[in-house]
Design a protein that fits this description.
The structure is a single chain. By secondary structure, this protein is an all-alpha fold. It has nine helices and no strands. The chain folds into two domains: 87 residues, no CATH class; 135 residues, no CATH class. Helix 1 packs across helix 2, helix 2 runs antiparallel to helix 3 and helix 5 packs across helix 6. It starts with 12 loop residues before the first helix and ends with a helix.
Length: 233
């Protein structure tokens, strides 16, 4: 197994092809943006962040000699989508500014991804007897945690806009204001983000519940639990 030749065991051809295409595309994008910048030629920091994200996603198996196995492909694909839409689309290509409702899209999709990954993790704990809870309780916990992460993100955006945007860090990131959008003032944007975060978290948790019920109805279990449990070697 290598970065350009992912492990094919227990992985469908579609999943493997998506994984390989996204890895290669993000690697090339990260290098290009790091060298030439993004939409305005001044977004090189996001190229570096793309490459760092790829390294982190693939670090467990690579840096531990497979003592910690690679993360399950279902989780990796979600993480790669987050990097693609956030760092490449939103930041390097400036879609947050160019597309009026891209911010709404991202504040729906990122919590959806986070909640779905959260459901994978709590289901694994449940399946192996480390957690006793109903599906509704598990989903509720994940929704609340995801909303909490959204609130932390909004505080981070406020801190950046208030204290960092006009300083050295702001110069590196292009002095872009995090709060507010082409269609909303900062307060409306923040509250809309929180409501959209909540909607995305609920949908992500519901998708997780539906997938769990589907696999259990077929007499099996959500195979992602096996992959997560094997990460420890």
């Amino acid at each position: 197994m290598s970065f350009l030749n992912p492990d094919v065991k227990d992985v469908s051809p579609l999943q493997r092809n998506l994984q390989m295409i996204m890895r290669i595309f993000l690697l090339i994008s990260g290098i290009y943006i790091l060298i030439f910048g993004g939409a305005n030629g001044a977004e090189r920091i996001f190229g570096l962040l793309i490459l760092i994200s790829l390294a982190i996603i693939n670090a467990p198996a690579f840096f531990t000699g497979n003592h910690i196995r690679a993360i399950p492909i279902e989780i990796e694909l979600l993480l790669l989508c987050m990097v693609l839409f956030e760092l490449v689309g939103g930041d390097a290509l400036g879609l947050y500014v160019k597309l009026p409702h891209y911010d709404n899209f991202m504040h729906f999709m990122l919590p959806l991804y986070v909640a779905l990954i959260g459901m994978m993790l709590v289901y694994t704990a449940y399946f192996f007897g480390k957690l006793k809870a109903s599906l509704s309780v598990m989903a509720g916990i994940i929704v609340l945690l995801t909303i909490g992460l959204g609130g932390v993100l909004e505080m981070g955006e406020y801190t950046y806009d208030t204290y960092l945007a006009d300083g050295p860090i702001g110069a590196i990131t292009g002095n872009t204001q995090m709060q507010g959008s082409p269609t909303q003032d900062p307060l409306d944007d923040t509250m809309n983000d929180l409501f959209t975060d909540t909607a995305g978290a609920i949908v992500g948790a519901l998708i997780g519940v539906l997938l769990i019920r589907r696999y259990e109805k077929e007499g099996g279990h959500w195979k992602v639990a096996d992959g997560i449990s094997k990460m420890g070697g």
